[in-house]
Design brief:
The structure is a homodimer. With about 260 residues, the first copy, chain A, is α/β, with parallel strands linked by helices. Helix content of chain A is about 30%, strand content about 10%. Chain A is globular, with a radius of gyration of 19 Å.
Chain lengths: ~260, ~260
């Protein structure tokens, strides 16, 4: 497979960096082709602003979705954004590797999403009718590709458990896994999450690396998270409500949107 | 009250900008003092990197929490970060206004959190023992101050409802309201959320502005979200598990961490 690794840590000598090297080595050993987007090393511009849309007139009001759609359609997005879109089209699988900061992606990676997912590419794709509501949530530009998060967290696993104070990790990652990955079409694999990342000793690293290698070896075969496809009949259109009776037993909140808990 | 408004939109002529003017005018009319952090206008640096920590030696490995704590303790954070911390100390209430992009804060605001919430200021505060696990989740540097989100979203309200495809808005905002605001001590008010923001007509704007004015008039009196305090006895230490039997009827996931649903 062609594998793109999007990496968002400012320090290559970090634990996150060491795990990246483990992942890349294992993927290469398995015969995959690997490309890297190292956001800090590339000097990635984190925020969306006027400079992203050279098509705008100097006095024109910036409406991000409209400007993004116009620039994408005209092939006039900036070169850094077009390069990332090209890598996404090339990839069969995309890994997003980052430390969990304040219960989400680092700003630089969030800005990668905001800039690379142009209107017409990451959203605003497909027809709206009484049977379809655009190509999203399981359909879209990135359909057929696998995606997976590689996350390092400072807190304890228990703190991210079903009754842990931080909230369950699956729910904390839902806005990313469902809202950022499944939305434009990715098939989303269960994440690799390493806890207490800042207290890891040598034995802990060896175990973490072994687990990561195993996940890399099974990248093509791991069963994905069973998110419901938007246009598959489970939701009313246009209100986009899950139809009565479809929820898994006991499921509420985000868990409604998976066919198993 | 002293009110800080942290604003994250690249276009002052946007709907978000118009609502900001409504909020500021109403707060001023009520006799509050208002200060603004307009992140795009200030040219806020979105990403955390080495440049944030002049205390680091050139060849020294960047460990963000450690470097942040050292710089904070030495008064050696960068001037832009220290200015934001001073505004937070000055404020009795803080409003965070932004468009919901990819189900979260814009990157520039996420980066404000990552940089301003230094170790020793936003986290890493207080003692750890068998009765306390640091000053966080209801205690901390920002305790006694109110915080509230002002959010504009492109999608329909139904899509963010209890069974809507995007997931419930309260759950989507939990990583921010609980993880970013309650964590360092803020008292968190229910958010102001405006849906279908890109399709608003004049009548819709008048209604949205009236609702926003009402929320600004009641900023001091609105009942906060009833998040559970970490060190109040509801959680085991150090596993930080919600004790059995404390959940509100039917609550799972994020809702466990509120005393009412």
């Amino acid at each position: 497979m062609n594998v793109l690794l999007v990496f968002a840590h400012p320090e290559p000598r970090s634990l996150t960096g060491a795990l990246r090297d483990v992942a890349v080595a294992e993927l290469t050993a398995q015969g995959h082709r690997v490309r890297l987007s190292d956001l800090y090393a590339q000097g990635w511009k984190a925020q969306v602003d006027r400079a992203d849309f050279p098509v705008l007139e100097p006095e024109e009001r910036l409406m991000v979705a409209a400007a993004s759609g116009r620039a994408f359609a005209a092939g006039a997005l900036t070169a850094d954004v077009r390069a990332e879109q090209e890598k996404l089209r090339w990839a069969d699988a995309v890994l997003f590797q980052f430390p969990l900061w304040w219960f989400g992606m680092p700003a630089i990676l969030k800005g990668w999403v905001e800039r690379v997912y142009a209107y017409g590419f990451g959203y605003g794709v497909g027809e709206h009718s009484d049977r379809r509501w655009g190509d999203r949530y399981g359909e879209g530009t990135l359909a057929g590709k696998r995606a997976m998060l590689l996350v390092t967290a400072g807190g304890w696993a228990e703190h991210y458990g079903p009754r842990g104070i931080n909230g369950p990790i699956d729910d904390l990652l839902f806005p990313i896994q469902h809202g950022v990955l499944f939305y434009p079409g990715f098939t989303v694999l269960p994440p690799y999450v390493l806890y207490r990342a800042d207290r890891l000793d040598a034995a802990g690293f060896a175990a973490a690396a072994a687990h990561l290698r195993e996940r890399m070896r099974t990248l093509e075969t791991t069963a994905p998270i069973a998110f419901r496809r938007q246009n598959g009949g489970d939701y009313t259109i246009p209100a986009m409500q899950l139809r009565p009776g479809l929820e898994a037993p006991g499921a509420t909140g985000f868990a409604l949107h998976r066919t198993e808990r």
